[in-house]
Amino acid sequence: MEKLTDIELTSVQSQEPQHRMVNSNANSILIQEDDVETPYGNFHVAIQGDRSKMAILTFHDIGLNHITCFQGFFNFPDIQQILRHFCVYHVNAPGQEEGSMHLKPELTTVVNKFDSSRNDSLFEFVYPSMEHLAEGIQHIVDHYSIKRFIGFGVGAGAYILSEYALEHPENVDSLVLINSTVGKAGWIEWGYQKLNSWYLWSGQMTNFTEDYLLWHWFGYKTKYENQDLVHVFREYVKSINPQNLSLFIESYLKRRDLGIVRELDPIKRPHVRTIKCRSILLVGDDSPHIDQVTDMNGRMDPQETDFMKIQDCGGMPLEEQPGKVCEAFRLFLQGMGYVPTLRAPKNPAQQTRISPHRKDVDFSKIQPVC
After folding, report:
1. For 195-209, how does the pLDDT look when each residue is reduced to its tens digit (9 = 90+)?
2. What span, in angstroms and rounded, lies between the C-alpha atoms of 353 and 138?
3. Helices 227-237, 207-225: inter-axial angle, 10-degree rounding
4. Are the C-beta atoms of residues 138 and 248 closer than 8 Å to each other?
5. Measuring CA to CA, which residue among 152, 13, 147 is closest to residue 70?
6. How far apart (Å, rounded) are the C-alpha atoms in residues 107 and 119?
7. Whole-model pTM?
8. What is the arithmetic mean of pLDDT over 224-242?
9. In the 8-state DSSP scheme, what is residue 321?
10. Mean pLDDT, rounded, of the chain
11. CA atoms of 173 and 150, how far apart (whole Å)
C-alpha cells in the first residue's frame, strides 16, 4: 500500500463569500443617465453601451426599476459578448427610479357638485395610464433619435412595450416579453392590488404588500426555496417610495385588453390587430403569471412568435435562470440575423429548449447586421 505524505498548504486563504445585494454598481458601465421630459411625466433613462449601435429598450415590472429588474441579468458574464453589439436604453416609469422623490401633484379644475356655475381648483395626482406610458416611449425614441429598437420588457413593462408595438410598429424590430399579458386585470388581482394601493398611498409598506410583491416577482416555490435571492429583494422593498408605487400599481390595474387577435387566414391576417414584429414570450414553469403568458401566446401570430417555458424557474427568470434566458436571447437574435457568428460558451451548465414554433434558420446565408 502506498504511503501517504502529509502536505502543508501555506498559500491557501479562506474568504467569506460576499452577500448578494441590489445596488447601482452597474453605473461603471453606463454611459449616461437622463431625465427625459414628456407630456406624461419625466422618464429616467440609463444608457449602457455605444449609442451608434442597434438599440435595446428595456422596461421594468411594478415595484422594480432598471437596477433591480435588469442589473443582475445584464451583468451576467454570458450576456456581455452579446451586449458588445448593442446599446441598451433602460427606461424607468415616472417616479419608479432609485431614490425617487414624491411625485408632485398637479392643479386641476373640477365642477362643484352643489353649484354647477362654480368651479373649484384642487391639487390632484395624475399618473399616466398604460397607454400614456407607451406614448412616453415615443418621446424617448425621438429624444435619442432611435430609428428601431428591440424591446425587452418584464410584467407591466412587457404590457407597455406590447401597447407601443401595436401603435408604432414601424419603430419596433422585435420584442422579448417576460411574464407578459394582454388582458385586463382579473377580480382576484384587482382585489389584492386595490388593498396594496391603499396601504402604499397612506405611506405604509405592510407585511401584506411585501408578501404580495414577493409572490408577484417570484411565485410560491421560489419564495420558499431560494431564500437568499428572496432576502435580497425583501430588503430592497423597504427602500421603495410607497406613494409613487401606489400610483404605478393603480395605472397597471386599470389596463385595458389590447385586443390582439390570432388570424390564421392569410387574406385576413394583414387587417387584424396583432403584434407584427418577431416576438419571444418567456415564463418560468412555476411562475404565478404562466396562465396569462399562455393566453397571450394563444392570441399571437404563430408565424412571428416563439414561446419558451423555462424549467426549474419561478417568476423572475432573469435572476433565477440567467444562463437559459441568455441562450434563448442569443438564438432569438441570430434567427433575425444579428450576431450570427456568436456561439454559446463552452460546456454550458444548462441547455435551453426553444418552442417548436421556431423556424429553422440556415445561418450560413445570413448577412451580419451588426
Report:
1. 999 999 998 899 999
2. 34
3. 160
4. no
5. 152
6. 13
7. 0.83
8. 93
9. -
10. 85
11. 5
Q: Give 178's strand partners.
A: 154, 282
The dihedral through the CA atoms of 226, 76, 322, 236 has a sign that is positive
Buried b (16+ CB within 10 A) or exposed e, 234-255: eebbeebbbebbbbbbbbbbeb
Dist. CA 243–CA 248, nearest whole Å:
9
Cell representation of residue 208: 401584506
Residue 323 carries which side chain, given as an amino acid letter?
G
Where do we find the cell 441598451?
Answer: 88
Cell, residue 20 = 448578494
Report CA-CA distances (Å) from 154 to 81, 144, 202, 299.
Answer: 22, 22, 27, 19
C-alpha span between 137 and 81 (Å, rounded): 27
Cα separation values, 77 from 72, 141, 327, 345, Å: 10, 28, 12, 10
pLDDT digits (tens, 9 = 90+) for 236-272: 999 999 999 999 999 999 999 999 999 888 888 888 9
Tens-digit pLDDT profile for residues 125-168: 689 999 999 999 999 999 999 999 999 999 999 999 999 999 99
Q: What is the DSSP letter of 205?
A: -
How many degrees, rounded to 5, is the angle at CA 33 between CA 145 and CA 83?
A: 70
Strand, coil or helix: what is 114?
coil
DSSP output for 122-189: EEE-----HHHHHHHHHHHHHHTT---EEEEEETHHHHHHHHHHHH-GGGEEEEEEES---SPPPHHH
SS3 251: helix
User: What is the DSSP pairing of strand 278-284 with strand 305-310?
Assistant: parallel
Distance CA 105, CA 362 (A): 55
Give SS3 for 347.
Answer: coil
Spatial distance between the Cα atoms of 243 and 218, rounded to a whole number of angstroms = 23
How many residues make up the chain in this entry? 370
